[in-house]
């Protein structure tokens, strides 16, 4: 009895399946063998065998026959509809129509209301009006005024929106217009004065609006200015030119 139990214990340690005759073993030894063999059961292995991908089965003769009938057009309307539903959906090879962005002529953008006088903000607007967008951003970057940081971020955002959403050329954008408006509410507070009197102090709010359009760049304007100055140069009289005199003298000189 002890030798049989020892053999079952060794076999369970080695992981080999041992079959004992019912006549030669007792129920207690069978229970011990089952308990020791159960420790080698791996649930992950069962999940892997259960849900592992299996090779695709070959098409049966009926399915081949249906496909041939579909090609020849011998199926009925209902059979063709059922087979069409069972057929896996394939992606259509048709390309989607290309969407062409419509090029806009201008882009308007503005800041939010912030605490500044409209007179002070209007001086900044006059500084950037009519300049290329990059030149205006550089002007705001090196300015010492407190509100220029907000105006610089507004110009950068307006340039990005004009190029991304309205398909405008960033190298040709200029600040075509810039104006300032007052805020909706001018806060008023009491300001104490001498001799028991008081005044009214106004805390102003204002905002700036700009319109970006495509125009001549800074290099183009510089080139045109140079050509215009060169056209004004007249020779000293060595070569006859059909050009009107710039400063004609008076007819009578005595």
TrEMBL record:
Listed GO CC annotations: mitochondrial large ribosomal subunit
Keywords on record: Ribonucleoprotein, Ribosomal protein
Keyword hit for Ribosomal protein: yes
One Gene Ontology term of the molecular function aspect: structural constituent of ribosome
InterPro entries tied to this protein: Ribosomal_uL22, Ribosomal_uL22_bac/org-type, Ribosomal_uL22_sf
Transmembrane feature ranges: none
Residue segments, region Disordered: 51-103
Upper lineage: Eukaryota, Fungi, Dikarya, Basidiomycota, Agaricomycotina
Gene Ontology biological process terms from the UniProt entry: translation
Protein's recorded name: Unplaced genomic scaffold CY34scaffold_4, whole genome shotgun sequence
Similarity annotation: Belongs to the universal ribosomal protein uL22 family.
Bias (Basic and acidic residues): 56-71
